Amino acid sequence: MRFLGKLDWLIIVILILTSIILFIPRRQSATIAEIYHDGRLVMTVDLRVDSQFNLEGMKIAVSGGRISVVDSDCPDRICVNQGAIDRPGMPIVCVPNRILIKIPAGYTQLDAITQ
Amino acid sequence: MHQLSKRNIASFLKGRIFFYGILLIAAAAILTYLFLREKPVEYYDRTGYYLGTYVTVRVGSKTISPVVLADAAMKEIARIDEKFGSRGSGTIARLNATGQADDLDQETVFLIKSALEVAENTGGAFDPTLFTLTTLWGFDDADSEKRVPLDSEIASALAKTGYRRVELDENEMAVRLPEGLTLDLGGIAKGYAVDLAIARIKSLDPQATGFIDAGGDIGVIGPKYGDRPWIVGIRDPRGKSVQDVIEYIYLYDGAVATSGDYERFFIVDGIRYHHILDPKTGNPSRSGVISATVINKSAMLADAYATAAFVMGKDPGITFLPRYGTLVFLVMEDRSTFKSPGFEVYQQK
Asked: Is B347 left (phi over 0), alpha (psi -120 to 50) or beta?
């Protein structure tokens, strides 16, 4: 006879799973993306609205809450190959054009509007 | 098959009781911790109609009921509305009727002084004596008839303006206006009410956090949950909806205000006539700016400087405003934008 039976292991596994689920942070969906040129914030883009625009020889598109570089005049086109992003953590970088597109981490909810 | 001896059963039970006992104690400890640990502040919202606009107070406190704080703030704003609002029969209305007052209180002197100071600092781009002009164009009230006045009418109304002609005597608490000149503190009263309401909340709880939004003039009481910025969108002046935002700023403290040509305007023959009048020409300002947003420590100053920035325009206009603790964001007619150096500090968390 072992120290813990099958039932005990079941209880332990259920407990561990429950606590993991409880501690998973609720993911906020990002609503804005920031575009930096030469390290300076040049544009803030609303991800809730689909749009397409040109910037520094790059064609940038927002579609379905995701932002991507669809075309670029840079030689290696790494930025285009990075695809679309929709959450913080992994920015799109174009070194030749000195462009950085990122979704700011955490609190992206709008609190007020000045008008 | 394995035979259980009495000793085995006893130690087996003992082990289990021990194991589940520890589990139970751990669970109790975690629950106690969750219950006793500091909870994040809950924010309380209160909205009222004052000073011709909707005022929202969002406040949270760890020590005082936010309802009490919001009450105190709203009382303060209501008092300013009563005293300086356009409907009011207060000091300013009497001053304008008689042309002089020598029984001003400190608050009125402070407001007049602040208005004249901003006017001085902006070379008259902000001018608190334009009410005659405003009325002429019909921008004094939503119900007033709006029309393009004749040049001669504008010229004669312009003669009844000019902040330099206001005689304020701080020591005697007195002010004199030349014949026909009227003083209009509407341009700064809203911001002043926000500043005052924040001061009132801070006097009750210095650690309180939140913000006050008076029709787009936003003053921060304290950072969100004590350590995060309030995220404020700048309205897109040509957006389809009021919720369309052209830029975002992050405010930990201070205030922001915007002046735009979309607030009050009418269109005749395809020309947009808006309510921000150029004190030099008496016509709606044509500086190429369609929206000016200003960050300042004080909501009152932000409000006044936003109007001035709108009139002054990009170049050389607003270039010296940072000297007065004022950062500017402009949207031009072609929807290009311009930021004062340093404005981007407020676009980083």
From this structure: alpha
Q: Considering CB atoms only, which of B12, B23, B56 is closest to A1?
A: B12
Query: How far is Cα B277 from Cα B132, in angstroms, rounded to an integer?
Result: 11
CA nearest B256 in A: which residue?
A114
Contact list in B for residue A104 (CB cut-off 8 A) is 349
> What is the ipTM, given to two decimal places?
0.74
Look up the pTM and report it.
0.73
Tokens of A73: 């005049």
- Any idea which of A45-59, A60-74, B34-48 has the lowest mean pLDDT? B34-48
What does the DSSP assignment read for B268-287? ETTEEEES-B-TTTSSB--S
d(CA B215, CA B221): 16
Helix (H) / strand (E) element for A69: namely: strand A66-72
What tokens does A19 get?
């606590």
Q: What is the DSSP-derived secondary structure letter of residue B164?
A: G
* Cross-chain Cβ contact A112/B349 below 8 Å: no
| Residue B112 near residue B185 (C-beta atoms within 8 A) | yes
Write out the H or E segment, with its range, that includes residue B112. helix B106-121
- List of residues 6+ apart from B208 with CB closer than 8 A: B59, B60, B61, B64, B66, B69, B201, B202, B221, B222
Asked if the bond preceding A75 is cis, omega within 30° of 0, the reply is no
Distance from CA of A107 to the nearest CA of B (A): 8
d(C-alpha B44, C-alpha B208), whole Å: 12
Nearest to A60 by CA among A99, A96, A106: A99
Q: What mean pLDDT do residues B241-251 have?
A: 81
The first and second tokens of residue B75, run together, are: 């009382």
- Of chain A, the end-to-end C-alpha distance in Å amounts to 74
